[in-house]
UniProtKB/TrEMBL annotation:
Gene3D superfamilies: Cytochrome P450
Species name: Mycolicibacterium vanbaalenii (strain DSM 7251 / JCM 13017 / BCRC 16820 / KCTC 9966 / NRRL B-24157 / PYR-1) (Mycobacterium vanbaalenii)
A molecular function (GO) term: steroid hydroxylase activity
Signal sequence annotation: none
Protein name: Steroid C26-monooxygenase
Domain of life: Bacteria
PANTHER family, per database record: BIOTIN BIOSYNTHESIS CYTOCHROME P450, P450, PUTATIVE (EUROFUNG)-RELATED
Annotated metabolic or biological route of this protein: Steroid metabolism; cholesterol degradation
Family stated for the protein in its record: Belongs to the cytochrome P450 family.
Length: 412
Protein backbone atom coordinates (compact mmCIF):
# COMPACT_ATOMS: atom_id res chain seq x y z
CA UNK A 1 0.00 0.00 0.00
CA UNK A 2 1.26 3.46 -0.88
CA UNK A 3 1.06 6.18 1.74
CA UNK A 4 -0.83 9.34 0.86
CA UNK A 5 1.73 12.11 1.44
CA UNK A 6 0.35 15.58 2.11
CA UNK A 7 3.32 17.93 2.28
CA UNK A 8 2.44 21.41 3.56
CA UNK A 9 4.67 22.99 0.91
CA UNK A 10 2.23 21.86 -1.81
CA UNK A 11 -0.40 24.29 -0.53
CA UNK A 12 1.59 26.93 -2.41
CA UNK A 13 -0.15 25.90 -5.64
CA UNK A 14 -3.49 27.19 -4.37
CA UNK A 15 -2.01 30.49 -3.15
CA UNK A 16 -2.06 33.23 -5.82
CA UNK A 17 0.33 35.39 -3.81
CA UNK A 18 3.01 32.69 -4.04
CA UNK A 19 3.34 33.27 -7.78
CA UNK A 20 4.07 36.93 -7.07
CA UNK A 21 7.00 35.84 -4.87
CA UNK A 22 9.25 33.69 -7.05
CA UNK A 23 11.80 32.96 -4.32
CA UNK A 24 9.10 31.53 -2.06
CA UNK A 25 7.47 29.61 -4.92
CA UNK A 26 10.66 28.00 -6.16
CA UNK A 27 11.80 27.13 -2.63
CA UNK A 28 8.54 25.23 -2.12
CA UNK A 29 8.77 23.45 -5.47
CA UNK A 30 12.42 22.50 -4.94
CA UNK A 31 11.46 20.99 -1.59
CA UNK A 32 8.58 19.06 -3.16
CA UNK A 33 10.66 17.64 -6.00
CA UNK A 34 13.12 16.26 -3.44
CA UNK A 35 10.73 15.13 -0.73
CA UNK A 36 7.15 14.79 -1.99
CA UNK A 37 7.04 14.86 -5.81
CA UNK A 38 3.45 13.59 -5.73
CA UNK A 39 1.70 15.33 -2.85
CA UNK A 40 -1.96 15.38 -1.80
CA UNK A 41 -3.30 18.92 -1.34
CA UNK A 42 -6.30 19.99 0.69
CA UNK A 43 -6.89 23.74 0.97
CA UNK A 44 -10.08 25.36 2.26
CA UNK A 45 -12.21 26.62 -0.62
CA UNK A 46 -10.68 24.23 -3.17
CA UNK A 47 -11.55 20.71 -4.22
CA UNK A 48 -8.55 18.51 -3.26
CA UNK A 49 -5.94 17.42 -5.80
CA UNK A 50 -2.54 15.78 -6.24
CA UNK A 51 0.42 18.10 -7.01
CA UNK A 52 2.85 16.66 -9.59
CA UNK A 53 6.22 18.41 -9.58
CA UNK A 54 8.74 16.21 -11.46
CA UNK A 55 9.36 16.68 -15.19
CA UNK A 56 9.15 12.95 -15.98
CA UNK A 57 5.83 12.57 -14.16
CA UNK A 58 4.32 15.60 -15.89
CA UNK A 59 5.32 14.13 -19.25
CA UNK A 60 3.92 10.71 -18.31
CA UNK A 61 0.53 12.13 -17.29
CA UNK A 62 0.34 14.30 -20.44
CA UNK A 63 1.23 11.28 -22.56
CA UNK A 64 -1.51 9.11 -21.04
CA UNK A 65 -4.39 11.29 -22.19
CA UNK A 66 -6.97 8.48 -22.15
CA UNK A 67 -6.45 7.77 -18.44
CA UNK A 68 -5.78 11.39 -17.40
CA UNK A 69 -8.34 13.65 -19.09
CA UNK A 70 -8.78 17.41 -19.23
CA UNK A 71 -12.47 17.12 -18.41
CA UNK A 72 -14.06 17.91 -16.05
CA UNK A 73 -11.40 20.04 -14.31
CA UNK A 74 -8.79 21.43 -16.73
CA UNK A 75 -7.41 24.22 -14.50
CA UNK A 76 -7.14 24.88 -10.79
CA UNK A 77 -9.76 27.22 -9.48
CA UNK A 78 -11.82 27.42 -6.31
CA UNK A 79 -14.64 24.97 -5.68
CA UNK A 80 -17.01 27.85 -6.37
CA UNK A 81 -15.18 28.53 -9.62
CA UNK A 82 -15.38 24.86 -10.61
CA UNK A 83 -19.14 24.96 -10.15
CA UNK A 84 -19.51 28.25 -12.01
CA UNK A 85 -17.55 27.05 -15.04
CA UNK A 86 -19.57 23.83 -15.15
CA UNK A 87 -22.83 25.79 -15.01
CA UNK A 88 -21.72 28.13 -17.81
CA UNK A 89 -20.79 25.23 -20.07
CA UNK A 90 -17.46 26.73 -21.16
CA UNK A 91 -15.84 24.37 -23.66
CA UNK A 92 -12.47 25.65 -24.89
CA UNK A 93 -9.71 23.45 -26.29
CA UNK A 94 -8.29 23.01 -22.81
CA UNK A 95 -11.63 21.59 -21.61
CA UNK A 96 -11.96 18.96 -24.35
CA UNK A 97 -10.67 15.41 -24.76
CA UNK A 98 -10.35 13.22 -27.82
CA UNK A 99 -12.02 12.56 -30.16
CA UNK A 100 -13.83 15.93 -29.84
CA UNK A 101 -10.63 17.77 -28.97
CA UNK A 102 -8.93 16.61 -32.17
CA UNK A 103 -11.88 17.74 -34.33
CA UNK A 104 -12.16 21.16 -32.68
CA UNK A 105 -8.41 21.74 -32.67
CA UNK A 106 -8.37 21.21 -36.46
CA UNK A 107 -10.47 24.36 -36.95
CA UNK A 108 -7.56 26.63 -36.10
CA UNK A 109 -4.64 24.31 -36.80
CA UNK A 110 -3.92 25.54 -40.34
CA UNK A 111 -3.60 29.12 -39.06
CA UNK A 112 -0.62 28.08 -36.91
CA UNK A 113 1.22 25.74 -39.29
CA UNK A 114 4.68 26.67 -40.67
CA UNK A 115 3.30 27.96 -43.98
CA UNK A 116 0.91 30.32 -42.21
CA UNK A 117 3.65 31.42 -39.81
CA UNK A 118 5.94 32.33 -42.72
CA UNK A 119 3.19 34.45 -44.22
CA UNK A 120 2.54 36.16 -40.87
CA UNK A 121 6.21 36.83 -40.11
CA UNK A 122 6.33 40.02 -42.17
CA UNK A 123 3.52 41.51 -40.07
CA UNK A 124 5.09 40.32 -36.80
CA UNK A 125 8.47 41.83 -37.74
CA UNK A 126 6.77 45.13 -38.64
CA UNK A 127 4.99 45.23 -35.29
CA UNK A 128 8.21 44.40 -33.44
CA UNK A 129 9.90 47.38 -35.11
CA UNK A 130 6.91 49.59 -34.32
CA UNK A 131 7.04 48.82 -30.61
CA UNK A 132 10.82 49.13 -30.33
CA UNK A 133 10.54 52.47 -32.16
CA UNK A 134 7.98 53.52 -29.56
CA UNK A 135 10.47 52.62 -26.83
CA UNK A 136 13.00 54.93 -28.49
CA UNK A 137 10.42 57.74 -28.68
CA UNK A 138 9.61 57.41 -24.97
CA UNK A 139 13.01 58.83 -24.20
CA UNK A 140 14.71 56.07 -22.26
CA UNK A 141 12.36 55.07 -19.48
CA UNK A 142 9.12 53.08 -19.31
CA UNK A 143 7.13 50.37 -17.59
CA UNK A 144 8.11 47.73 -20.11
CA UNK A 145 5.18 45.41 -19.29
CA UNK A 146 2.33 47.89 -19.52
CA UNK A 147 3.73 50.11 -22.27
CA UNK A 148 5.35 47.55 -24.58
CA UNK A 149 5.08 43.84 -23.75
CA UNK A 150 1.31 43.58 -23.33
CA UNK A 151 0.65 45.44 -26.57
CA UNK A 152 2.96 43.77 -29.08
CA UNK A 153 1.46 40.22 -28.91
CA UNK A 154 -2.01 41.74 -28.48
CA UNK A 155 -1.67 43.45 -31.87
CA UNK A 156 -0.44 40.21 -33.42
CA UNK A 157 -3.23 37.94 -32.19
CA UNK A 158 -5.99 40.50 -32.73
CA UNK A 159 -4.76 41.09 -36.27
CA UNK A 160 -4.83 37.33 -36.89
CA UNK A 161 -8.40 37.14 -35.59
CA UNK A 162 -9.41 40.18 -37.62
CA UNK A 163 -10.52 42.25 -34.61
CA UNK A 164 -10.63 46.01 -35.37
CA UNK A 165 -7.82 48.01 -33.77
CA UNK A 166 -10.37 50.22 -32.04
CA UNK A 167 -11.29 47.21 -29.87
CA UNK A 168 -7.75 46.14 -28.93
CA UNK A 169 -7.69 48.02 -25.64
CA UNK A 170 -11.00 46.50 -24.62
CA UNK A 171 -9.65 43.02 -25.29
CA UNK A 172 -6.50 43.79 -23.30
CA UNK A 173 -8.62 44.84 -20.32
CA UNK A 174 -10.75 41.70 -20.50
CA UNK A 175 -7.67 39.46 -20.76
CA UNK A 176 -5.91 41.09 -17.82
CA UNK A 177 -9.08 40.85 -15.72
CA UNK A 178 -9.54 37.16 -16.57
CA UNK A 179 -5.99 36.06 -15.85
CA UNK A 180 -5.53 38.61 -13.08
CA UNK A 181 -8.74 37.79 -11.22
CA UNK A 182 -6.71 36.90 -8.12
CA UNK A 183 -4.67 40.10 -8.27
CA UNK A 184 -6.03 43.10 -6.37
CA UNK A 185 -4.69 45.54 -8.97
CA UNK A 186 -6.07 43.76 -12.05
CA UNK A 187 -9.27 42.00 -10.93
CA UNK A 188 -12.68 43.36 -11.92
CA UNK A 189 -14.06 43.09 -8.38
CA UNK A 190 -13.76 41.16 -5.14
CA UNK A 191 -16.71 38.76 -5.50
CA UNK A 192 -16.91 35.77 -7.85
CA UNK A 193 -19.92 37.42 -9.53
CA UNK A 194 -18.00 40.64 -10.21
CA UNK A 195 -15.00 38.76 -11.55
CA UNK A 196 -17.28 36.74 -13.81
CA UNK A 197 -18.40 39.93 -15.54
CA UNK A 198 -15.14 40.07 -17.52
CA UNK A 199 -15.89 36.63 -18.92
CA UNK A 200 -19.51 37.62 -19.61
CA UNK A 201 -18.40 40.79 -21.42
CA UNK A 202 -15.98 38.77 -23.53
CA UNK A 203 -18.71 36.29 -24.44
CA UNK A 204 -21.03 39.13 -25.42
CA UNK A 205 -18.37 40.71 -27.60
CA UNK A 206 -17.48 37.51 -29.42
CA UNK A 207 -21.15 36.59 -29.94
CA UNK A 208 -21.38 39.82 -31.94
CA UNK A 209 -18.24 38.88 -33.90
CA UNK A 210 -19.74 35.47 -34.68
CA UNK A 211 -22.95 36.97 -36.01
CA UNK A 212 -21.01 39.45 -38.16
CA UNK A 213 -18.68 36.81 -39.64
CA UNK A 214 -21.54 34.41 -40.39
CA UNK A 215 -23.46 37.15 -42.15
CA UNK A 216 -20.40 38.42 -44.02
CA UNK A 217 -17.40 36.01 -43.97
CA UNK A 218 -13.90 37.49 -44.19
CA UNK A 219 -10.36 36.16 -44.63
CA UNK A 220 -9.39 35.92 -40.96
CA UNK A 221 -9.30 33.40 -38.14
CA UNK A 222 -12.48 34.78 -36.58
CA UNK A 223 -14.38 33.95 -39.75
CA UNK A 224 -12.88 30.44 -39.85
CA UNK A 225 -14.08 29.85 -36.27
CA UNK A 226 -17.53 31.37 -36.81
CA UNK A 227 -18.21 29.27 -39.91
CA UNK A 228 -16.56 26.03 -38.78
CA UNK A 229 -18.48 22.76 -38.87
CA UNK A 230 -17.92 19.61 -36.84
CA UNK A 231 -19.39 16.41 -38.28
CA UNK A 232 -21.39 18.58 -40.67
CA UNK A 233 -22.94 20.79 -38.00
CA UNK A 234 -21.93 24.35 -37.04
CA UNK A 235 -20.43 24.97 -33.63
CA UNK A 236 -22.89 25.98 -30.93
CA UNK A 237 -22.75 29.58 -29.75
CA UNK A 238 -21.01 28.59 -26.53
CA UNK A 239 -18.43 26.45 -28.37
CA UNK A 240 -17.77 29.20 -30.92
CA UNK A 241 -17.21 31.82 -28.25
CA UNK A 242 -15.10 29.38 -26.25
CA UNK A 243 -12.77 29.01 -29.24
CA UNK A 244 -12.35 32.76 -29.58
CA UNK A 245 -11.75 32.97 -25.86
CA UNK A 246 -8.81 30.57 -25.80
CA UNK A 247 -7.16 32.08 -28.89
CA UNK A 248 -7.60 35.69 -27.81
CA UNK A 249 -6.45 35.23 -24.21
CA UNK A 250 -3.86 32.44 -24.30
CA UNK A 251 -2.48 33.81 -27.59
CA UNK A 252 -1.70 37.11 -25.95
CA UNK A 253 -1.02 36.97 -22.23
CA UNK A 254 1.44 34.09 -22.28
CA UNK A 255 3.66 35.73 -24.90
CA UNK A 256 3.68 39.12 -23.21
CA UNK A 257 4.69 37.43 -19.95
CA UNK A 258 7.59 35.67 -21.67
CA UNK A 259 8.85 38.82 -23.40
CA UNK A 260 8.73 40.74 -20.11
CA UNK A 261 10.35 37.98 -18.07
CA UNK A 262 12.92 37.41 -20.82
CA UNK A 263 14.01 41.03 -20.71
CA UNK A 264 14.22 40.98 -16.92
CA UNK A 265 16.41 37.87 -17.13
CA UNK A 266 18.74 39.60 -19.61
CA UNK A 267 18.95 42.68 -17.38
CA UNK A 268 19.78 40.57 -14.33
CA UNK A 269 22.27 38.45 -16.29
CA UNK A 270 24.27 41.04 -18.27
CA UNK A 271 26.80 38.42 -19.38
CA UNK A 272 23.98 36.59 -21.17
CA UNK A 273 22.72 39.82 -22.72
CA UNK A 274 26.19 40.59 -24.06
CA UNK A 275 26.59 37.00 -25.25
CA UNK A 276 23.33 37.16 -27.20
CA UNK A 277 24.10 40.58 -28.68
CA UNK A 278 27.49 39.33 -29.85
CA UNK A 279 26.10 36.08 -31.22
CA UNK A 280 22.60 36.64 -32.69
CA UNK A 281 22.64 33.08 -33.98
CA UNK A 282 21.84 31.99 -30.42
CA UNK A 283 18.41 33.67 -30.63
CA UNK A 284 16.36 30.46 -31.17
CA UNK A 285 18.01 28.87 -28.12
CA UNK A 286 17.59 32.09 -26.13
CA UNK A 287 13.87 32.13 -26.96
CA UNK A 288 13.46 28.59 -25.59
CA UNK A 289 15.36 29.57 -22.45
CA UNK A 290 13.11 32.60 -21.91
CA UNK A 291 10.06 30.37 -22.27
CA UNK A 292 11.49 27.85 -19.77
CA UNK A 293 12.57 30.60 -17.39
CA UNK A 294 9.20 32.35 -17.29
CA UNK A 295 6.83 29.41 -17.85
CA UNK A 296 3.76 31.66 -18.18
CA UNK A 297 1.22 28.81 -17.92
CA UNK A 298 1.65 27.73 -14.32
CA UNK A 299 -0.47 24.59 -14.33
CA UNK A 300 -3.07 22.45 -15.98
CA UNK A 301 -5.19 19.83 -14.26
CA UNK A 302 -6.01 16.27 -15.31
CA UNK A 303 -8.57 13.87 -13.81
CA UNK A 304 -8.01 10.12 -13.57
CA UNK A 305 -10.70 8.14 -15.38
CA UNK A 306 -9.56 4.91 -13.72
CA UNK A 307 -7.26 3.93 -10.89
CA UNK A 308 -3.72 4.91 -11.86
CA UNK A 309 -0.26 5.33 -10.41
CA UNK A 310 2.31 8.15 -10.58
CA UNK A 311 5.79 7.54 -9.14
CA UNK A 312 4.44 4.67 -7.07
CA UNK A 313 1.59 6.76 -5.65
CA UNK A 314 -1.94 5.43 -6.18
CA UNK A 315 -4.29 7.91 -7.86
CA UNK A 316 -7.91 6.84 -7.52
CA UNK A 317 -10.43 7.17 -10.34
CA UNK A 318 -12.05 10.60 -10.11
CA UNK A 319 -9.10 12.28 -8.38
CA UNK A 320 -7.42 15.26 -10.03
CA UNK A 321 -3.73 16.00 -10.51
CA UNK A 322 -2.10 19.41 -10.93
CA UNK A 323 0.81 19.51 -13.37
CA UNK A 324 3.23 22.17 -12.14
CA UNK A 325 5.07 23.39 -15.23
CA UNK A 326 7.37 25.86 -13.42
CA UNK A 327 8.52 23.01 -11.20
CA UNK A 328 9.06 20.68 -14.16
CA UNK A 329 11.11 23.38 -15.84
CA UNK A 330 13.47 23.63 -12.86
CA UNK A 331 13.86 19.88 -12.40
CA UNK A 332 17.46 19.09 -11.47
CA UNK A 333 17.19 15.67 -13.10
CA UNK A 334 16.53 17.23 -16.52
CA UNK A 335 18.26 20.63 -16.56
CA UNK A 336 21.89 21.22 -15.67
CA UNK A 337 22.04 24.10 -13.19
CA UNK A 338 18.31 24.82 -13.66
CA UNK A 339 18.38 28.14 -11.81
CA UNK A 340 20.96 29.57 -14.20
CA UNK A 341 19.61 31.61 -17.12
CA UNK A 342 21.58 30.38 -20.15
CA UNK A 343 20.80 31.79 -23.61
CA UNK A 344 22.73 28.91 -25.18
CA UNK A 345 21.06 26.09 -23.20
CA UNK A 346 20.92 23.00 -25.39
CA UNK A 347 19.14 20.65 -25.03
CA UNK A 348 16.21 22.43 -23.42
CA UNK A 349 13.35 19.99 -23.02
CA UNK A 350 11.03 22.36 -21.20
CA UNK A 351 7.33 21.62 -20.74
CA UNK A 352 6.10 25.21 -20.93
CA UNK A 353 3.92 24.40 -23.96
CA UNK A 354 2.62 21.16 -22.48
CA UNK A 355 3.14 17.83 -24.17
CA UNK A 356 1.23 15.28 -26.22
CA UNK A 357 -2.17 15.85 -27.80
CA UNK A 358 -2.68 19.09 -25.88
CA UNK A 359 0.64 20.64 -26.93
CA UNK A 360 0.03 24.39 -27.30
CA UNK A 361 -1.63 25.20 -30.62
CA UNK A 362 0.07 28.61 -30.80
CA UNK A 363 3.60 27.53 -29.83
CA UNK A 364 5.10 28.40 -33.24
CA UNK A 365 3.51 31.85 -33.18
CA UNK A 366 4.74 32.54 -29.64
CA UNK A 367 8.29 31.53 -30.57
CA UNK A 368 8.20 33.71 -33.66
CA UNK A 369 6.92 36.76 -31.76
CA UNK A 370 9.56 36.46 -29.03
CA UNK A 371 12.29 35.94 -31.63
CA UNK A 372 11.14 38.91 -33.76
CA UNK A 373 10.93 41.26 -30.79
CA UNK A 374 14.38 40.55 -29.38
CA UNK A 375 15.93 40.38 -32.86
CA UNK A 376 14.70 43.95 -33.35
CA UNK A 377 15.51 45.19 -29.84
CA UNK A 378 18.96 43.83 -29.01
CA UNK A 379 21.01 45.31 -31.90
CA UNK A 380 19.61 48.74 -30.99
CA UNK A 381 20.00 48.37 -27.23
CA UNK A 382 23.04 50.24 -25.91
CA UNK A 383 22.20 49.93 -22.22
CA UNK A 384 19.34 48.79 -19.98
CA UNK A 385 18.78 48.58 -16.23
CA UNK A 386 15.96 48.29 -13.74
CA UNK A 387 14.41 51.61 -12.77
CA UNK A 388 12.29 50.21 -9.95
CA UNK A 389 11.06 46.98 -8.44
CA UNK A 390 9.59 44.37 -10.79
CA UNK A 391 6.15 43.13 -9.72
CA UNK A 392 4.47 39.83 -10.58
CA UNK A 393 0.79 39.06 -10.98
CA UNK A 394 -0.90 37.11 -8.20
CA UNK A 395 -2.30 34.10 -10.05
CA UNK A 396 -2.57 30.33 -10.00
CA UNK A 397 -3.01 29.81 -13.74
CA UNK A 398 -1.41 32.20 -16.26
CA UNK A 399 0.82 35.14 -15.55
CA UNK A 400 4.18 36.76 -15.09
CA UNK A 401 5.34 40.31 -14.55
CA UNK A 402 2.75 43.07 -14.31
CA UNK A 403 5.28 45.90 -13.91
CA UNK A 404 8.90 46.13 -15.09
CA UNK A 405 10.23 49.70 -14.76
CA UNK A 406 13.36 50.05 -16.91
CA UNK A 407 15.85 52.73 -17.93
CA UNK A 408 17.58 52.23 -21.28
CA UNK A 409 19.36 53.74 -24.23
CA UNK A 410 18.44 52.81 -27.78
CA UNK A 411 19.75 53.70 -31.21
CA UNK A 412 17.27 54.98 -33.74
Amino acid sequence: MSVRIADEAARVFADPSAYADEARLHAAMTHLRANAPVSWVEVPGYNPFWAITKHADIMAVERDNLVFTNSPRPVLTTAEGDAQHEAMGISTLIHLDDPQHRKVRAIGADWFRPKAMRALKVRVDELAKTFVDQMYERGGECDFVQEVAVNFPLYVIMSLLGIPESDFQRMLTYTQELFGNDDAELQRGESMEERGLALFDMFTYFNEITAARRARPTEDLASAIANARIDGAPLSDIDTVSYYLIVATAGHDTTSATISGGLQALIENPDQLQRLQQNPGLMPLAVEEMIRWVTPVKEFMRTAQQDAEVRGVKIAAGESVLLSYPSGNRDEDVFTDPFRFDVGRDPNKHVAFGYGVHFCLGAALARMEINSFFTELLPRLKSVELAGRPEHIATIFVGGLKHLPIRYSLTR
